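Preliminary data (for renewal application), 1,4-anhydro-D-erythro-pent-1-enitol complex.
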Amino acid sequence: MSLKSNPHIQHGGYDFLYHLGINTKDVDIKKLFNDVKFVCLGGSQSRMFEFVRYIGAQLNVKIGENEEPFNYAYKTDRYCLYKAGPVLCANHGIGIPSLSVVINEIFKLLFYAECKDVIFLRIGTSGGVGIDPGTVVITTNVLNGELKPIHCTTVLGRRIEHPTYVDSDLAKELVNLCPDENYATVLGTTVSVDSFYEGQGRIDGALCDYTDDDRKTFLKSLQEKGVKNIEMESIGLFSFCHRAGYKAAMISVVLVNRLVSDKPTDDDEARKDWEQRPFSIASHFIKSRLDKV
Ligand code: R2B
Ligand code: URA
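Predicted structure:
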């Protein structure tokens, strides 16, 4: 049997998931990963280390020896890969190129492990458009830097456009799961771009060829289109998962209101606290889905 999204990838052959440092000759992938039902992705390794400890405690499952999460990608320092029962956790780095590498290798791992009905969640951070820092945005539509709902890439020397698909039922399920009076969780459009500075209309990067008025006009126009936040991976996530046949959602906490400032909060305590919010929503979702099985 071959992978639906790539007939060149077959079961039973040898594969080396290079950036995860996992060799199918050395590891029984099916035995280790067959029970995976959720893949949670976030940018940084330390945040995913925190997340696997959190979700492991919530689900009361083992994540390694002596509470120390076991990193299945221990042979490399590109990415981390943890597992808490049916939840696989990895970091994706910054931007779609980095996400594309790890998600290709995770898709193959799930295929070799013969996993069924897996849901991908990105639990991340973003800049808000007209919303308070600490608010959580669940994406209902995704636009690229040209404000189109397509993921553009280059393949074999040609520009390719891939459609994106955001599951609105899944987004609504997530937004209703976890009412918390300390913060708001909102549905909205996410803009996903290739840069943190110019691509997000910042004037505080080292490179900038536009005026502060241009910046304000751009951000206001996003707000008028219903855009709630800006980040750097979701258009890739929704396009890759759609092509591979997986459901996906994005749960992202806002670190700055871009109509007020370019700078994400420098309050480390507040940021740590806010970063827990997508953890909590993901955990409520995973537990509610597991309860239904
Ligand atoms: C959110 O935060 C990162 C940039 O600081 C990037 O990965 C993203 O999408
Ligand atoms: N991540 C982003 O991509 N943008 C922000 O403004 C904050 C976090």
